[in-house]
Automatic annotation (TrEMBL):
GO biological process: DNA transposition
InterPro entries in the record: Homeodomain-like_sf, Transposase_8
Family annotation (Pfam families): HTH_Tnp_1
Protein name: Transposase
Originating organism: Pelotomaculum schinkii
Molecular function GO terms recorded: DNA binding; transposase activity
């Protein structure tokens, strides 16, 4: 089976028409092309803007906190670690207490 080539502007016109109509199958039948081709063109058109975007615009910069922000984040992190440790200790004590008062009671 021979593969037929279509110009890019024709493809773009059909993709636009399919999006406006909302029914790619009817557009494909009206123009006498394969619906698979039209669906593929629609998928490719979704990524067209990404392909045409400049490489510098695609780069994502990493956030580097200032020294003051870093100290504040570190302080908050240490506080949260301390709270978590206290909660774990509290849970462990309560489990031991339940084991002593009710030996057959499942604790985990």
């Amino acid at each position: 089976m021979k593969r037929k080539r279509y110009p890019q502007d024709f493809k773009e016109q059909l993709v636009k028409e399919a999006q406006e109509v909302g029914n790619a199958l009817s557009v494909a039948k009206r123009h006498g092309i394969s619906e698979k081709s039209l669906y593929r063109w629609i998928q490719e058109s979704k990524y067209k803007a990404w392909k045409e975007t400049d490489g510098n615009a695609k780069k994502v910069a990493a956030y580097i906190p200032s020294p003051q922000e870093f100290k504040q984040i570190e302080k908050e992190n240490n506080t949260l670690k301390k709270l978590l440790g206290e909660k774990d200790l509290e849970i462990s004590i309560l489990r031991d207490l339940v084991k002593k008062t009710r030996p057959g009671y499942p604790t985990e």
